[in-house]
Amino acid sequence: MSALELGSAIRRGEAGAAEAVAACIDAAERDNPRYGAFLCLLRERALARAKAVQARIDSGEALSALAGVPVAVKDNISTQGVATTCASAMLERYVPVYDATVITKLEAAGMIVIGKCNMDEFAMGGSSETGAFGPVCNPRRVTHVAGGSSGGSAAAVAARLAPLALGSDTGGSIRQPCAFCGVTGIKPTYGSVSRHGLIAYASSLDQIGPLARDIDDCAALLSVISGPCALDSTCVIDAPFDFSRQRPENLRGTRIGLPRNYLARGIDEDVRAAVAGAAREFEAAGAAVDEFDMPLMDYMVPAYYIIACAEASSNLSRYDGLKYGYKSPAAKTLSDVYRLSRSEGFGLEVKRRIMLGSFVLSSGYYDAYYNKALQIRALIKDAYNKLFERYDMLLSPVAPTAAYALGENIGDPMKMYMGDIYTVSVNLAGLPAAALPCGLSREGLPIGFQLVGDSFSEGKLIAAGRVYQSRTAHHTAACGGDAL
Amino acid sequence: MTIDNKLLGYLEDLSCLALPDGEKSRLGADLQEILSYMAKLAEIDTTGVAARSHPFDNVNAFREDEALPSYERGRILANAPAKSGEAFIAPKTVE
Question: In A392-451, which ranges are continuous DSSP H helix?
Fold first, then answer.
C-alpha cells in the first residue's frame, strides 16, 4: 500500500493511524538489527500522537492527504525532545529544544514521526558507513551499502519499515541512496523547503527532501514540507507546491537532454544500459530525447568538495564542548576543551573535511581553491541556464555503479568522492532533481536515474516521473517485510 | 602543493583539532591526494568570472522585527556538558 493509499484508507475509516504506526514500529523493531536504518524508534510518542490525529480525522477535520501516515526522519533534522545525533558521538546526547520547520509542517498535516534514521556522520559520506553508531545495510542485499548520506531513510522505505521518509541532499544524499536501495526521491530546488532546524553541513547546498516508494508519494510529501518560512531567509518559495494537476498521459512536447559524456566513461555497463533503457521509455512516451555533452564535467567534483568542505569547516566550528555536544573528560584548559572534544567527538571523515575546508579557506590558498571553486560554480550555473533554454529536463545516471559491498570503498576517500560525479552539480546550481529506479544490475542490485530540471520546475519532473512509473514496474519491487 | 608536517599542524590549529599521530599521518596523505586532484580547477580560465557563493542572487530578505518568547533557559542548559545555575561552565582562562 502506498502512503497516499494508506492516507485515503485512514480517511475512509478502513485503516487506523495507530494501527499503521504500530505496524511500522513492530516491523522496524523486528528488522532494524538487520538493516541499521533507524537510530531510534518513538513508539509511545508516535502512538499517542496517532490517537490524537485519529480523533481529529474522525471528527471530520481535513488535515491532508497524508494525515495519519507514518514517516521516518533523518537524524540531522531537529526534533524537539527527541535526540538528534547526526549519527555522531559529538551529538549523542543532544536533545533539541525546538522542531525543524519541516517537522512542524509534517505535524500540521497530521503525519506521525515514527523514528530517526541513521546516516553518514553529519551527512558527510556516500555510503552511510561513517556514522558513529554502525552502518546502514542495503535491504536489497545486506552485505552491501545503502548509499548515503540519507541511507537510513532510503533503507527504511525500501525495507517497508516506513512508507515515507525525509532525507537531506547536499551533493546527492537523497538521490544516491534512493538509487542504491531502489526507491524514489526528490532533491527539491534550493529555497523551496525550509532548512530551519536542519543541522548544517554546507548551508548553500543543503536541502531537505522526500523519499518514498513512488513519485506520487514523494510529490505528496514535498507538497507538505515545501513553502515559505520566516525562520529561513533563503527559503524563497512563495507558496507550498501543488502537484495535483501534473498528470499528463504522455510526454509529447517534452524535450529531454541526455548527457552523452556522462555515459561515455567511468560508468558501470549495467548502469549505462539501464539509463539508456529509461531514455528509450521516455521516447516511447512521446518525449524528444536528445544527446549533448555536459560542460565542465571533470570540474564538478573538485569544485563541490572545496565549497562543501569550506562551509562545513565553518558550520562545524560551533561544536566547542561547552554549550552542547561531547566534552572530553581529559580536557583541563579551554584550548583542551575545544581541541580534545572535537578530536574525540568527530569521526575521521568529518575531521578530513574540516581540515580540507580549513585549508581552502586559509590565507595563501583561498584564491587558488575556494574562490576558484566559486567561479567554477558560476560557470556550472550558467551552463545549466543555457541547457534549460533547449531542454525541459535532463536525464542522467545517479551514480556510476550500483551499491557496493560494505567496507569496499570506505578507506579510499577519492573513490568515494568520485561516486558523486553525476549529482553534485545539481546542488552547486540549486536545481531540483528526482531519482527513480530503472532496473537491476546483473548482481540484482537496484539502479536509478535522475531527472534534473530548472529551478522550481519540480512539477515537470513529477509529471515525467508519473508517466515513467505508469509505464514501468521498477519502483514496485519489494524486499524485506511489508508493514502495511 | 605539499602537505608537510608544518602545514598539517597549522591546519590542525585552524580546525581546532588535536589529532593522534596515526590519524595525522593518514589525513596528511589523504589531503595530499585530494588537493592534488582539486588542483585540476586551475585548467579552467576564470578571468573575469564573478564568484558565486549561493545558488540565487538574493541579497537579503527582511522580515518584521517581532518579539517572541525565548526558549526556556533550563532546557537549553540541559544540553551543556557542564553548567552551574544559569551559566555554562568553562575552564578558567585568566589567572
Answer: 413-418, 424-428
Among A78, A76, A81, residue whose Cα is nearest residue A49: A81
What residues contact B78, with CB distance under 8 A and at least 6 apart?
A95
State pLDDT tens for residues A38-85.
999 999 999 999 999 999 999 999 999 999 999 999 999 999 999 999
SS3 content of chain A, % helix, strand, coil (to 5): 40, 15, 45
Partnered with residue A115 across adjacent β-strands are: A41, A72
CA dihedral for A412, A413, A414, A416, sign (positive or negative):
positive
A113 beta partners = A71
**Which of B38, B60, B94 should we substitute to test contact with A (largest number of A Cβ atoms within 10 Å)?**
B38
CA geometry: angle at A136 spanning A133 and A137, to 5°?
140
DSSP B71: P
Task: Say which CATH superfamily domain A3-251+432-476 falls into.
Answer: Amidase signature (AS) domain (3.90.1300.10)
Closest chain B C-alpha to A355 CA, distance in angstroms:
6
Residue among A123, A287, A307, A464 at smallest CA distance from B51: A307
The ipTM of this complex is: 0.96
Residues of B with CB below 8 A from A376's CB?
41, 44, 46
- Which cell numbers in the block locate residue A161? 519499515
Residues of chain A with pLDDT under 70: 478-484
Note the pLDDT of residue A480.
52
What's residue B57's pLDDT? 85
Q: Which domains does chain B have, with CATH numbers?
A: 5-43 (1.10.20)
Collect all residues of chain A within an 8 Å Cβ-Cβ radius of residue B79: 93-95, 97, 323-325
* Partners of A185 in beta bridges: A211, A435
Distance from the first to the final alpha carbon of chain A: 6
How many CB atoms sit inside 10 A of residue A232's CB? 18
Query: Cβ(A153)–Cβ(A167) under 8 Å?
Result: yes
A149: preceding bond cis by omega (within 30 degrees): yes
- Which chain A residues contact residue B33 at CB under 8 A? 413-414
Residue A196's pLDDT is 98
How many whole angstroms separate alpha carbon A208 and alpha carbon A272? 28
Which burial class, exposed, middle or buried, applies to A128 when counting CB atoms under 10 A from its CB (0-12, 13-18, 19+)? Answer: buried
